[in-house]
Amino acid sequence: MSDIIDDVLSNIKNSSIFKSREYLLPEYVPDELPHREEQIKKMASVLAQVYRSEIPNNIFVYGLTGTGKTAATRFVLKNLRIKLDTFEYLYINTRQSDTSYRILADVIEKLGERVPFTGLSTAELYRRMLRKLNDFSKIIIIVLDEIDAMVKKHGDDVLYKLTRINTELERSKVSLIGITNDVKFVDNLDPRVKSSLGEEEIVFPPYNAEQLEDILKRRAKLAFKPDVISDNIISLCAALAARDHGDARRAFDLLRVAGEIAEREGHSNITSEYVDRARIEIEKDRVYEIINTLPFHSKLVLLAVIKGLSNKSSLTTGEIYEIYRQTAKSISTESITQRRVSDILNELDMVGIVTAKVVNRGRYGKTKEVNLAVSKEIIIKGLLDNDEKLAGLWNR
Ligand SMILES: Nc1ncnc2c1ncn2[C@@H]1O[C@H](COP(=O)(O)OP(=O)(O)O)[C@@H](O)[C@H]1O
Ligand SMILES: [Mg+2]
């Protein structure tokens, strides 16, 4: 058996594919960000006010995922900080730290003070944060990344508090950079938060295929050994990612996963077949991740769809609702309304897990015809993994 392990290791050790795979990982921060010059310039000129010790306007950054928002923001702050020491900055990803408690605790910890994981009141945390911020006697730029995810779950209270914070600080001043992947999300914000964050707005448009190709080429040189990847393959990855709303992360994932498959199989160059397989693998991971992290009732609805489709070729919202209701009842869980189930079906349609087509049934009015958009196996796996309650339901 151990020769299997030897084989795997030897493929990696003697990789004829990667020179340095880490250049293709999502967390790598590049030293150059081609095609984002305009956004970088605008952000830098707003933030450069710190040179005169003036508080920069707050900045609201928006654009779809993979358009370089996080990378460009980190790039500007890092490089500005190297040249100026009149300010500090800290970066918080509010998808990971997604409650008021975690966000305030994160700020305090990044300013160098430990905080218990739970147990303090948010009022107490807020007081500690103010004290810690004041101790710095500087301008502090706080980046709140992916605020759409946080606000959707917990509302915008903490954002509101942060936009008002300067009235309570004496020696230090705070300037905010809020980043969102969801462009429409702004409309759900408290108008006061919206106007305060939106003092300056920077939009990150999707990359087109040509720009992606350029970005990929530069990185591929660093990541792959010579002659592993041709310009044609890079164009192919760029074109695929451009179709997928110009997402650079997707483009890098394609290159990396295609390389990994080639490496695993002991090949020394990347062909379009590997890119194809990479695309399928990535799509599976994406779908799995979405399903696995759905809220409980959304999972129940999806389970109802699967159950219903085991003896019908498509389902109406009413049929799904009935199965959902019985399932919820069988585990003594209160049902949500049919209206809400219909919304959930729309959400599942938007992320590409089901198709929900509106059909007109004459005098019976309109209904939706629901079907699966991805394989049943991947849905079941996503639903049941790490979820004992659902696994129990499924096995009954
Ligand atoms: N112009 C660019 N040049 C080089 N790499 C880029 C560029 N734009 C994005 N990337 C890379 O693509 C990935 C996604 O970018 P990111 O900043 O995380 O996007 P967003 O925050 O908008 O979702 C990251 O690995 C980033 O380094
Ligand atoms: Mg980001």
Structural class: alpha/beta
Number of helical stretches of at least 4 residues: 17
Q: Ligands bound here?
A: adenosine-5'-diphosphate, magnesium ion
Return the CATH topology of the largest domain: Rossmann fold
What composes the largest sheet? 5 strands, parallel
- Structure summary, number of beta strands: 8
* Integer count of domains: 3
Shape type: globular
CATH architecture classification name of the largest domain: 3-Layer(aba) Sandwich
Task: Write a structural description.
It is built from 17 helices and eight strands. The mean pLDDT is 91. By secondary structure, it is an alpha/beta fold. Helix 10 crosses helix 11 (248-264). It folds into three domains: 37-203, 3-Layer(aba) Sandwich (Rossmann fold); 207-290, Helicase, Ruva Protein, domain 3, CATH 1.10.8.60; 294-395, Arc Repressor Mutant, subunit A. The two termini are 37 Å apart. A five-stranded parallel sheet has the order 2-3-4-1-5, sandwiched between helices. A three-stranded antiparallel sheet has the order 6-8-7. 53% of the residues lie in helices and 12% in strands. The protein binds adenosine-5'-diphosphate and magnesium ion. Magnesium ion binds next to helix 3.
